[in-house]
Design brief:
The protein has 649 residues and is of the alpha/beta class. The chain folds into 3 domains: 196 residues; 150 residues, Reverse transcriptase/Diguanylate cyclase domain (Alpha-Beta Plaits, 2-Layer Sandwich); 234 residues, TIM Barrel (Alpha-Beta Barrel). The protein is built from 25 helices and 16 strands. The strands form 3 sheets. It has an 8-stranded mixed barrel with strand order 8-9-11-12-13-14-15-16, surrounded by 5 helices. It has a 5-stranded mixed beta sheet with strand order 2-3-1-6-7. It has a two-stranded antiparallel sheet with strand order 4-5. Strand 6, helix 14 and strand 7 form a beta-alpha-beta unit. Helix 2 packs antiparallel against helix 3, helix 4 packs parallel to helix 6 and helix 5 packs parallel to helix 7. The protein is elongated and about 120 Å long. The termini are far apart. 33% of the residues are buried.
Length: 649
């Protein structure tokens, strides 16, 4: 009985708290002409503390007691004490500030307290003492003061207040009886159920409505937590849970399972050219086609973006490959949306249970790895995970984890390789090169730079290289005629903050912008050309020189180079090595083109005196390679320079 009564009392508590707080604000700040406003604020603070206690009591009941079996004595005691204190607080307010109230404020106060008393007769009906005494505590002191006052209007307010107390007492008594009878009826035996349903039809209708709302809300919560809103497929959390259950079943029945990681080909181009609305419709159509081929909806999910996963239980490698090829064929069929005929492909990676892994997260990762490897080789095809991929993956994970801590662990360092002016024989500039020593192993940049780019670590590492190289160059052995050259990756350039990072590095090192070269590889021209040119020109505007590295091996054209207005072109070392087998013609053509466009030319990979003499004779202005020096740390560079200056030129 007490638990049911407490449930009813707490069910209206949240609204009561909000209304009480609003009333407090209105009483304290609604009558700004009252000279006792400051004292009212103190009263408000005390009431707020009381309301916080009531909120804590409600929270404690909802979290720990509601719906459970418990002794209701103490929770009921806490509730009633808090409500009595609330009533006394408002009663004290009316008594303390009575003398300072004008007729409007007094009338409003009586109306507010009367409204609170009226509401309490219903809201507190489950507790007889509270229901019967609440109106008396709230209104009686103020009504008595009004009766004893000198003004006629105050006497009228007093009479009305006492009459309202009597009326509310009668109403509260009736409400309490009805509520108690309802609680008692709830506990009657089944023979009285039909009669109770007839008497409480309205209550049952409300309950039915509430149950329907709860059911709908439960379904919504399930959908929000398990279903991808766009594709209506399972999301990654739901799929992972279902895959775990499938693996348990496979282990029990000693059967196999294939996990297919599907990545769409060409989807980004559709998104970029037709907009996200069309892209979303492509994903929806793709989901429909996948659902048509998947055995069970629980075995299919949208992993994120344009990536999907399918689990095939009781499936060997041959069947998985056949299924994947059919899937690629179906997904590659044209999609017609708003009069557009669109085409996407799919690259699929496969991991098998138990051959490749036994854990759901591991199998998904391995299938993703197989897909990634296949995408590097050829898109719109299938690849099954192999142990070699596993070793590559472990190596990549090791490098990724190491790179994420490389700066913090002071494992990165910069070396410099001089570039020699072929006419004067002096150092023209030095190229800064990044090196990394991981647990004593010197890892090649050819290996770790792609890992850094793939996992988004290149931005912090690239920024560190720029700052460190400029700092070292500002203190090195050369004079101001010797420049510094720093390589920048495609990912750094396309990230959008390269110019601000370069400015920061120059400001921090006090290195003049005129002494800095930024090197970009020729492959960067495969990116957004207009954006590349915009970034390069922004660097040139602050005085920085731009070099095109590995020239002749990639995507650049004369028109692009002319638009870029680069300062330096570096001929790739492959042409230097084949100087006697056709490379000489390419070098001569590049030299001629550079002269016409106003570029300087650097020949990379010079390893012999014969190569150096030949290139100098051809008019190549600058030479770089092991013939002159290997890449060195700043301290070694100073010693090398002293020895180099002493050599006869």
């Amino acid at each position: 009985m007490q638990r049911d009564a407490l449930n009813l009392l707490h069910s209206n508590n949240a609204g009561s708290l909000l209304v009480t707080f609003c009333i407090c604000i209105a009483l304290v700040f609604g009558f700004v002409n009252n000279p006792e406003v400051a004292s009212k604020v103190y009263w408000l603070a005390l009431v707020c503390v009381l309301l916080l206690y009531r909120y804590w009591d409600m929270y404690h009941w909802r979290k720990y007691l509601k719906g459970n079996e418990y002794d209701a004595y103490k929770p009921m005691l806490r509730f009633t004490i808090a409500r009595y204190l609330t009533a006394f607080a408002f009663s004290a307010y009316s008594v303390v500030f009575f003398e300072s109230m004008d007729i409007i404020e007094l009338a409003c106060t009586i109306v507010i307290l009367s409204a609170m008393a009226g509401g309490a007769s219903t809201v507190l009906a489950a507790h007889k003492g509270l229901a019967l005494s609440y109106a008396f505590i709230l209104l009686t002191p103020l009504s008595v003061l009004c009766l004893l006052a000198n003004e006629e209007y105050q006497n009228i307010f007093g009479i009305l207040g006492l009459i309202f107390v009597v009326v509310m007492f009668s109403s509260a008594k009736y409400s309490n009886q009805f509520t108690i009878e309802s609680i008692l009826t709830k506990h009657q035996n089944s023979d009285l159920l039909e009669q109770m349903e007839l008497k409480n039809k309205e209550i049952l209708e409300v309950n039915a409505s509430l149950e329907s709302k709860v059911q709908r809300r439960t379904e919504q919560i399930f959908e929000l937590s398990n279903i991808d809103p766009l594709s209506k497929l399972f999301n990654r959390n739901a799929f992972s849970e279902n895959l775990k259950l499938l693996l348990d079943s496979c282990e029990l029945h000693e059967s196999s399972l294939a996990v297919l990681f599907i990545d769409l080909d060409g989807f980004k181009a559709i998104n970029d050219s037709h907009g996200h609305a069309i892209g979303d419709k492509v994903l929806i159509e793709t989901s429909t086609r996948l659902s048509a081929q998947a055995d069970m909806k629980q075995c299919l999910c949208r992993w994120g973006g344009d990536e999907f996963l399918i689990a095939l239980q009781g499936c060997d490698v041959e069947r998985a490959l056949e299924f994947a090829n059919n899937l690629i064929f179906n997904l590659s069929l044209p999609i017609t949306i708003e009069h557009h005929e669109l085409h996407v492909g799919a690259t699929i990676g496969i991991a098998m249970y138990p051959e490749h892994g036994t854990d759901e997260a591991q199998l998904i990762t391995l299938a993703d790895t197989a897909m990634y490897v296949q995408k590097q080789l050829a898109k719109s095809d299938v690849c099954v995970f192999t142990e070699q991929m596993g070793e590559t993956l472990q190596r990549e994970i090791k490098l990724k984890e190491g790179l994420s801590q490389a700066i913090k662990n002071d494992e990165l360092f910069v070396v410099f390789q001089p570039v020699i002016d072929s006419k004067s024989g002096q150092v023209g500039f030095c190229e800064a090169l990044l090196r990394w020593k991981l647990n004593g192993e010197l890892v090649s940049p050819v290996e770790f730079i792609p890992v850094a780019e793939h996992h988004g670590l290149i931005h912090s590492i690239g920024a560190w290289v720029l700052h460190e190289s400029c700092k070292l160059a500002s203190k090195w052995t050369f004079d101001e005629t010797v420049d510094l050259s720093i390589n920048v990756s495609v990912a750094q350039l396309m990230h959008g903050d390269l110019v601000s990072i370069v400015k920061s590095a120059l400001a921090g090192s006090q290195l003049p912008a005129e002494n800095l070269h930024i090197e970009i590889t020729e492959s960067i021209f495969a990116q957004d050309i207009s954006y590349v040119l915009e970034q390069m020109k922004a660097l040139q505007r602050i005085g920085i020189k731009v070099s095109v590295d590995d020239f002749g091996t990639g995507f650049s054209s004369l028109a692009l180079l002319q638009s870029l207005s680069a300062d330096v072109v570096k001929i790739d070392q492959s042409f230097i090595k084949s100087i006697d087998e056709g490379g000489k013609a390419i070098i001569q053509a590049t030299q001629y083109m550079a002269n016409e466009l106003g570029y300087s030319v650097v020949a990379e990979g010079v390893e012999t005196k014969l190569q150096a003499d030949t290139l100098s004779a051809m008019g190549v202005e600058s030479l770089q390679g092991f013939y002159f020096s290997k890449p060195m740390k700043a301290g070694e560079l100073a010693l090398w320079h002293e020895a180099f200056k002493a050599q006869p030129k």
